[in-house]
């Protein structure tokens, strides 16, 4: 029974909302309207989990800035959004944004700010002290050909090991596989992992950010970033600034951020304020001034491992980066 309750909690992650109107597919609609040209209202898409949590303060405090704030699971909705141009702002894996920028087809999106600098962990039911301990294991992970997959493949190459990958759609499915006992080793992420810690005391956890640092001598990797339509350059700076302030507020006040998140979606409410508050410091939120160098370092490491297709085959040009 306890396992069923936990699985239900995870499956509800990021469904529903609090103070604004919501549709059944996770789209939230602000009730405020404005015709002021200086206050361009945007449509926002963000993946569930850590990126959404980072923007909980924006979502709660700035409802007049957006008409839609949509949260989706998995990479497919993000890919579709880059192609369709339906959303003005997309929070996505940094390399995914680079892929679509380099394709130079349809609506072009540029990068404003990386906000998540790694939130990935391996969870196993037996002791693991190094990535090398994962040799020949069956591992369930999410995000095929996206950041989790790239990090795992890069580290496997560095340690000269192999593992058997079983891909699922999202972090909830991956973590649920561990809880149900169908997988003995999974890749998970914050904030779901903190909920897992609270329920399964015998889990052994490996910090992939620390393993990445051993490989690259870099503290972390630019996991998820804010992208927006190039045609909106100079028109939504207030929105972009509010989003980065939301990230800073998450670090400065995890308690308020967690409270805002619980009123934002039923899934966050299910996880609970205490879990979210404890998870936020482990989510590696940051606004870095040297993000271009860090991104190019990350992409070059992928290229060294013949993974250059995962950022579009070439480093994006200077116009990819936008600063206010």
Summarize the helices and strands and which ones pair or pack.
Blueprint: H1 2-11, E1 21-22, E2 27-29, E3 42-47, H2 50-54, H3 56-61, E4 66-72, H4 76-84, E5 89-93, H5 94-103, E6 109-116, E7 120-124, E8 138-142, H6 147-159, E9 164-168, H7 171-180, E10 185-189, H8 192-199, E11 204-207, H9 208-216, E12 224-229, H10 237-252, H11 254-262, H12 266-271, H13 273-279, H14 291-304
Parallel strand pairs: 3-4, 3-5, 8-9
Antiparallel strand pairs: 1-2, 2-4, 5-12, 6-12, 7-10, 7-11
Helix pairs in contact: 1-7, 6-9, 8-13, 10-11, 11-13
Question: How does this model look, in words?
Answer:
The chain has helices spanning 2-11, 50-54, 56-61, 76-84, 94-103, 147-159, 171-180, 192-199, 208-216, 237-252, 254-262, 266-271, 273-279, 291-304; strands at 21-22, 27-29, 42-47, 66-72, 89-93, 109-116, 120-124, 138-142, 164-168, 185-189, 204-207, 224-229. The protein is α/β, with parallel strands linked by helices and 324 residues long. The chain has 2 domains: 2-118 and 221-320, Periplasmic binding protein-like II (D-Maltodextrin-Binding Protein, domain 2, 3-Layer(aba) Sandwich); 120-216, D-Maltodextrin-Binding Protein, domain 2 (3-Layer(aba) Sandwich), CATH 3.40.190.10. Strands 1-2-4-3-5-12-6 form a 7-stranded mixed beta sheet, with helices on both faces. Residues 1-37 have low confidence and may be disordered.
């Amino acid at each position: 029974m306890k396992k069923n309750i936990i699985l239900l909690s995870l499956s509800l992650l990021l469904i529903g909302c609090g103070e604004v109107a919501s549709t059944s597919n996770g789209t939230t609609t602000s009730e405020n309207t404005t015709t002021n040209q200086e206050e361009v209202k945007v449509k926002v898409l963000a993946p569930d989990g850590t990126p959404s949590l980072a923007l909980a303060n924006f979502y709660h405090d700035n409802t007049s800035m957006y008409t839609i704030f949509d949260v989706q699971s998995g990479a497919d909705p993000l890919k579709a959004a880059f192609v369709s141009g339906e959303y003005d702002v997309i929070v996505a894996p940094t390399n995914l944004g680079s892929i679509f920028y380099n394709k130079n087809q349809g609506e072009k999106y540029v990068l404003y700010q990386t906000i998540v600098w790694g939130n990935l962990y391996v969870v196993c039911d037996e002791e693991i002290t190094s990535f090398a301990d994962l040799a020949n294991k069956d591992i369930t992970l999410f995000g095929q050909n996206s950041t989790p997959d790239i990090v795992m493949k890069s580290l496997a190459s560095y340690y000269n090991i192999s593992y058997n990958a079983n891909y699922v759609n999202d972090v909830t499915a991956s973590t649920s596989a561990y809880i149900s006992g169908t997988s003995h080793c999974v890749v998970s992420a914050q904030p779901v992992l903190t909920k897992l810690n609270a329920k399964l005391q015998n889990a052994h956890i490996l910090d992939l950010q620390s393993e990445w640092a051993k490989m690259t001598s870099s503290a972390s990797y630019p996991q998820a970033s804010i992208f927006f339509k190039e045609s909106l350059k100079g028109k939504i700076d207030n929105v972009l600034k509010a989003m980065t302030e939301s990230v800073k507020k998450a670090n400065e006040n995890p308690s308020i951020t967690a409270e805002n998140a619980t009123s934002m979606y039923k899934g966050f409410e299910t996880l609970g304020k205490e879990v979210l508050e404890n998870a936020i410091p482990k989510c590696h939120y940051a606004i870095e001034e040297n993000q271009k160098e860090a991104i190019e370092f990350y992409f070059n490491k992928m290229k060294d491992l013949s993974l250059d297709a995962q950022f579009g085959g070439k480093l994006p040009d200077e116009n990819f980066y936008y600063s206010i």
